[in-house]
Amino acid sequence: MGGKQKVADKTIKSFIDLFDDHASGAVAAIEEYHRAHEQLLTAGSTETLPKTPVVIAVKDLTKTYKVGRQKLDVLKGISLDVHEGEFVALTGPSGSGKSTLLQLMGGLDKASSGTVEVDNVNIGKLRDKQLSHFRGQTIGFVFQFFYLQPFLRLQKNLEVPGMFAGIRGIERKERIATLAEAVGLQDRLDHLPKELSGGQMQRAAIARALLNRPKLLLADEPTGNLDSANSKAIIELFDRIRREFGTTIVIVTHDQAIARHADREIRLQDGAIV
């Protein structure tokens, strides 16, 4: 054993001698790595994500409602960026301002102060007609309640956004066929909403929101009325949409499964990011 140990020691010494001239450089490189690693840990895990163009830029956003003579501050100086292709979950207790923030991002309400830029457009400066056109071209909305017209078959329900956007009938039908297959409803296009399950209706609502090929998809509690199996299917569908269509997705949710699945969770409490 003594001879083997001497051989091992000699080998190690030779190895050290071989790299001795570069030791200081190696130490410096290791120290630099640790400094960079510490900076990432301090900044949070989202800094490790690749930087893509900003789709939503929110700066110093506030929203105050008047209730009688009292003022209710719902949002208190929110600032955040959402990047192209991100899947972001907005979480927090009821009354924290999640849905209000989502509505302001989508131009469904006006801020009291601050700015919201979507795709480099300050939507707070758009007139009503301009804003309506911009929403129709750039943003898709999915809500907890499906809002499918009960007297229209699924094919027509999905066509409605395209009609308002002026998309030709042939192209509407082509897009519907693609989206219906993507959400697993290609065999349900002749059905009325009452003939669909809750999960199928939510998938239909998502397909409808994607008909105009929006850059941004905003969803408010999209799994709130679904059981766990359908909720899981919707989460997987959102992931597929992001992957196949490159859509940026922001979801308001109480569902921790969605929050864990998202690239980033932004938590609100009492109108502020915590």
Description of the molecule:
The chain has 274 residues and is an alpha/beta fold. The protein folds into two domains: 3-42; 54-273, P-loop containing nucleotide triphosphate hydrolases (Rossmann fold), CATH 3.40.50.300. 44% of the residues lie in helices and 23% in strands. The strands form two sheets. The protein has a six-stranded mixed sheet with strand order 6-7-8-3-9-10, sandwiched between helices. The protein has a four-stranded antiparallel sheet with strand order 2-1-4-5. Residues 18-31 and 33-47 have low confidence and may be disordered. Helix 5 (154-164) packs parallel to helix 7 (198-210).
Offer a concise description of the structure.
The protein contains nine helices and ten strands.
CATH level-4 homologous superfamily of the largest domain: P-loop containing nucleotide triphosphate hydrolases
CATH fold descriptor of the largest domain: Rossmann fold
**Sequence of secondary-structure elements:** HHEEEHEEHEHHHEHEHEE
Strand order of the largest sheet: 6-7-8-3-9-10
Q: What is the overall number of helices?
A: 9
Approximate shape: globular
Domain count: 2
Distance between the termini: 61 Å
Radius of gyration, in angstroms, nearest whole number:
25 Å
Determine the structural class based on helices, strands and strand pairing. alpha/beta
Q: Work out the number of β strands.
A: 10
CATH class group of the largest domain? Alpha Beta
Average residue pLDDT: 84
Into which percentage range does the β-strand content fall? 15-25%
Main beta sheet: strand number and arrangement?
6 strands, mixed
**Second rung of CATH, namely the architecture of the largest domain:** 3-Layer(aba) Sandwich
Uncertain segments are: 18-31, 33-47
Q: Helical residue percent?
A: 40-55%
